[in-house]
Amino acid sequence: MAAPKVKQDMAPPGGYGPVDYKRHLPRRGLSGYSLFALGIGSLLLGYYTLIKWNRERRRLLIEDLEARIALMPLLQAESDRRTLRLLRQNLDEEAKIMKDVPGWKVGESLFHTDRWVPPTLDELYYLRPAAEMDNEKFGLQYYV
């Protein structure tokens, strides 16, 4: 038996057109130099705002310090009044407790000096409940 005639697929007359094998991608975004310039510009802007904010913060700190210096005499006077009130209450309580002891001098200093010696917390609160002294010593740390 004879083989059937097969028609072979051939190139068109004149051949196929040229094959486009090169990459033709469109340019996307900014160039490297412009990205570098943009980065330097953003850094400079950041440094400028940082310097500006540091100057403002320094000005606010100086203002706080001046306010604290202005209030210090008032706060010291209040602290002194509170200390003297506690000492007066302690002397009254000591006089009441030690009234029957012969030769006891109420308020006699333990120190052999005429200078003012600020009392410690133990000296101020020795006749008070222990919770008051703990509150004075530790304050809000006691609750944390």
SSE inventory with pairings:
Elements: H1 32-97, H2 121-125, H3 130-138
Describe the structure.
This protein is mainly alpha-helical and 144 residues long. It is 56% helix and 0% strand. It is built from three helices and no strands. It has helices at residues 32-97, 121-125, 130-138.
Proportion of residues in helical segments: 55-70%
Task: Enumerate how many helices there are, as a single number.
Answer: 3
Biggest sheet layout: none
Q: Tell me how many strands there are.
A: 0
Quick structural summary:
The protein has helices at residues 32-97, 121-125, 130-138.
Sum up the structure in keywords:
single chain; 56% helix; 144 residues; mainly alpha
